[in-house]
Amino acid sequence: MEKETARIEAFSDGVFAIAITLLILEIQIPGPSGNLGSQLIKEWPFYVAFLISFAFIGIMWINHHRLFTHIKRSDNTLMILNLLLLLGVTSVPFPTVVLAQHLGHPDQAVAARVYNGTYFVIAIFFNVLWWYVNRAHLL
Fold this sequence. Notes:
The protein is an all-alpha fold. The protein has one domain. Helices cover 76% and strands 0% of the residues. It contains six helices and no strands. It has helices at residues 6-22, 36-42, 44-70, 76-91, 93-102, 108-135. The protein is elongated and about 60 Å long. The two termini are 17 Å apart.
């Protein structure tokens, strides 16, 4: 018998996979100018932001996977709360680019707040999801 949450998990896995893949699209490939090394080094903020966001999305996926191994059944509220979490996950590429573009510039503090704020909202969504699953006896 298939687990009742299998479709939710499959959809969520797809969203996580797409979000983590979209992160790499902002890393620009330098054109042939004879100074490839220095051009690659100039892109360091994008590498750092990519690696941090990749790790964070990976950790979120692991936590999501572990949570859903305990959930026995689903309901509409669970699906809505899960969609809110996935909304946060799909937004991660945007603050990642904002952070990368502004590291080392005067607005880097604002960029860091946008980036951190995104993860704060995602953490709220995840905790509300966990709280609901416990309260609704879906475990």
